[in-house]
Amino acid sequence: MTDELRLYYHSKGDALRYITETNPVIKYEGGYEWVKLNTDITAYSLRDKNNNSLITVAFSEEDKQLYVKQNNVDDYAIFIEQLAQGLEAEKITGIQSARDDTGKLYIGYDSILEASENNNTFTRDNINIPDTYNYAISNEGQLYVGMDNINYASDNGATFNKNNVHVNIQSSMYENGPLYVGEERSNQYDYEIMQKKLEEGKPIDIKNIPDFMLAKGYATSKSGRVFLGYEQMQKAVDDGVRFEKVSKNLSGAMPENKYEPESWAISKTGKLYLGIDEIKHISEHTNFSKVHISPDDRRNEKALAVSKEGKLFVGEDAVNKIPKGTVLASATIKGTTNITVWSHKVIGDFNASDSNLSSLNGNACFKGNATFDNCNKLKSFEEKVYGNFSAENSRLTSLDAKKIKGNINIKGTELAQECGFDEINADDKNQYEQKQTMNDNQIGFFMDEEETTTRTM
Predict the structure, then answer these.
(1) How far apart are CA 94 and CA 103, in angstroms?
(2) Sheet harboring 160-166: ordered strands across?
(3) How many whole angstroms separate alpha carbon 342 and alpha carbon 358?
(4) pLDDT (0 to 100) of residue 40
(5) What is the rounded distance in angstroms from the CA atom of residue 266 to the CA atom of residue 298?
(6) Do the beta carbons of residue 79 and residue 106 sit within 8 Å?
(7) Cβ proximity of 386 and 402 under 8 Å
(8) Other CB atoms closer than 10 Å to residue 144's CB: what's the count?
(9) Where are the beta strands (DSSP E) in 255-369?
(10) Distance (Å) of CA 278 to CA 14, 250, 262
(11) Cα–Cα distance between 393 and 381 in angstroms, integer?
(12) Helices 77-87/109-117 angle, 10° precision
């Protein structure tokens, strides 16, 4: 924009506020003028004193709409505004515009922003601002443009309806309440509102709680209340609250504001126990409905089993002392050194990887998946497995594949070398059994020959 044009832009010049069928239709001091073009459509060109075309617009008489064709026309907003008023245009496209409730038209972002700051009232249908901008109209009709203005208005009592809000970044608003835009203010508002509801003890659907508030874990009581984080839950435990559910990502506070995963368990009566030590202490006399042992505690304790009735066994000594005939919901003895024999039925998954397990007796049965990877002392397996079976890199030399319903993984074993299979699926089992039968017959033949030779001597 030239200095001369800027002068007329700010002073608005001595515009002739009329429209005629002859050129120029609007003339400004300094040689600037709107000229009607001789085209098939109604079009106008803003010319400078040298008759250079600055911008071109088209006008539809039918819908009273003015179309601005060029980009970056905000410098000429005041001239477009005067033309639009002279033509009695009801809508403008191609440039930011807004018409307040008195009918006054504002062209260009700066003009709209100034009008909004002067307490002019607007309706949503009369605002034409690009989607890249954040703006909102309060319930009082006040237009606020930009994140800072919206947040400032909300801090000072403005309320909003979602139908009059356009924001393209994270925001939070409860119907006919304040609107906060931007991650920091949005999260802060969500936290305050949700915290208030939680303190009132009202049942809340977890889906309505922001993810950042659930990051340290949560628990729900049998009455539907929600408790966020370890400290709230511990207080609820002390208050005798009965629980229904705990998230697996529960974290407990540690020094320097750090957090570590927590183990938890809910008894059949709904009492919540937090921390592995408390769980172990009470497990001998308590049946649990839900149990979660953190990864760190699993590595430390190694052996863990839960009976069908909810009895929990933690540690190698406890697992070794599981009463005969106990049916387990799930069990892991991964990495254990003192559990060498397994004799229990497991309804869920069983994991004995990297353990010293050397044998299983006839009572052992696995309804889920059974894993024996890197078991260096387990050489034979003849038990039933209803899920998948894996003994990768173990010392396995014999296997009754007919008793395993799922897929079989014996990669890296002596057995795999002998039978030619790393993995055995349903289609491979008959072929595997045939090979095993042939191998057994060959071994038997050599044994018979050796015994005959011995007797002859």
Answers:
(1) 20
(2) 143-145, 135-138, 160-166
(3) 9
(4) 83
(5) 18
(6) no
(7) no
(8) 25
(9) 259-261, 264-267, 272-274, 288-292, 304-307, 312-314, 327-332, 341-342, 345-346, 350-351, 359-360, 365-366
(10) 86, 16, 11
(11) 14
(12) 80
CA distance 139 to 136: 10
pLDDT digits over 262-287, tens only? Answer: 888 999 999 999 888 899 999 888 99
Taking only the tens place, the pLDDT of each residue in 406-444 is 999 999 999 999 888 899 887 777 777 666 655 544 433
DSSP string across 345-372? EESS-EE-TTS---EE-TT-EESS-EE-
Sign of CA dihedral 338, 340, 341, 347: positive
Taking CB atoms within 8 Å and a gap of at least 24, the contacts of 142-146 are 142/116, 143/98, 143/112, 143/115, 143/116, 144/116, 145/109, 145/112, 145/113, 145/116, 146/113
Backbone angles phi, psi at 235, to 5 degrees: -65, -40
**What amino acid is encoded at 410 in this protein?**
I
Q: Which residues contact 256 (CB under 8 A, 6 or more apart)?
A: none
Please choose, from the candidates 97, 149, 141, the residue with its C-alpha nearest in 3D space to the C-alpha of residue 121.
Answer: 141
Helix, strand or coil, per DSSP, at residue 76: helix
Q: Is the dihedral of CA 316, 320, 321, 327 positive or negative?
A: positive
pTM flag (> 0.85): no
Tokens 């070794």: give the residue.
320
Contacts 24+ apart (CB under 8 A), 283-287: 283/311, 283/312, 283/313, 283/314, 283/318, 286/312, 287/311
Residue 262 phi/psi, 5° resolution?
-115, 145
Give all strands of the β-sheet with 243-246 in edge-to-edge order. Answer: 226-228, 218-221, 243-246
Q: Which residues pair with 314 in a beta bridge?
A: 304
pLDDT tens column, 352-386:
999 999 999 878 999 999 999 999 999 999 999 99
Q: How far apart are CA 334 and CA 373, in angstroms?
A: 9
Judge whether 331 and 304 are in contact, CB under 8 Å: yes
Q: What is the CA radius of gyration of the chain?
A: 39
